[in-house]
Amino acid sequence: MPAILGTGEHRYRVVENFAKLPDGWQLTDVASVAVDSHDRVYVFNRGAHPMVVLDREGNFLRSFGEGLFSRAHGLHIDADDNLYCTDDGDHTVRKCTTDGKVLLTIGIPKKPTPFMSGEPFHRCTHTALSPKGEIYVSDGYGNARVHKFTPDGKLIKSWGEPGTDPGQFNIVHNIATDSDGWVYVADRENHRVQVFNGEGKYETQWNNLHRPCALCCCGGGKSPTFVIGELGPGLAVNRKVPNLGPRLSIVDAQGKRIARLGGEEGPGVASGKFLAPHGIALDSKGDIYVGEVGVTDWKTSFPDEEMPAAVRATRCLQKLERVQE
């Protein structure tokens, strides 16, 4: 029987063997996912075919990005079905059509700015849009900044610096916005999500999270909800400790937890377990798609175990189907 995660109105059934790929294809790490207005699922991955497109049943439609992307990291899709693809391997954000035509490139491919210089980009991680179409970029591994650009890619402002105080970051890993223009930043190694206004003014933070990695705003309107993917332990000293994830948490607009999916007994490949949630998207039915970097994270979680072949093939993409009451 498929595993059921969550409680009450937030119950999800794990869809076994969701992705149906052409023979011989592998996704390896799925860094991020997005769903367009037709419920097509875009799987931004680190395999030979960087963007794999599936229908909501997991059937293969097409791929693109071969020879274009260096290392998939973040993916966002706007109301017009434009894809914003963040590549931390070549330090760029590319705006693309759903068939892979590049409309805009921000950043200079293969030319990062100096480490922790604050200038865009050094291993940027994700994007989000303001209600006016301005582009926010989290940046990332080699910087501790959020950058704000005009819709055509001109830098407006930046904020953030390394540290643990409000407005400082320790791996600014993901970013989301809501319809009111608030900006939510997954400050991963500070174990929090920070909330800013559209100009970068710190407002509040959400705590009681463990290495928040993926961040998805859903529901819209005045009461959005958020699905947060939390990584499990990253250090050997707490590798076997329960209740630290990896898991998904669903929170309201004030950061109060509504539900939690999985993570009580650590990572795993069994149904109902996660490896390393890294990207999250929802479709029109409220089903959740989870991209995981299980290949990269395997040695951290399972240093003495051989990685199953399924992890490299398709296991780094999961679909959780909402259980209707």
From TrEMBL:
CDD domains: NHL_PAL_like. PROSITE patterns: NHL. This is NHL repeat-containing protein. The keyword Membrane does not apply. It comes from the Bacteria. Keywords: Glycoprotein, Repeat, Signal. NHL repeats lie at residues 128-152, 160-199. PANTHER family: BLL1368 PROTEIN, PEPTIDYL-GLYCINE ALPHA-AMIDATING MONOOXYGENASE. The keyword Glycoprotein applies. InterPro entries: 6-blade_b-propeller_TolB-like, NHL_repeat. Gene3D superfamilies: TolB, C-terminal domain (2.120.10.30).
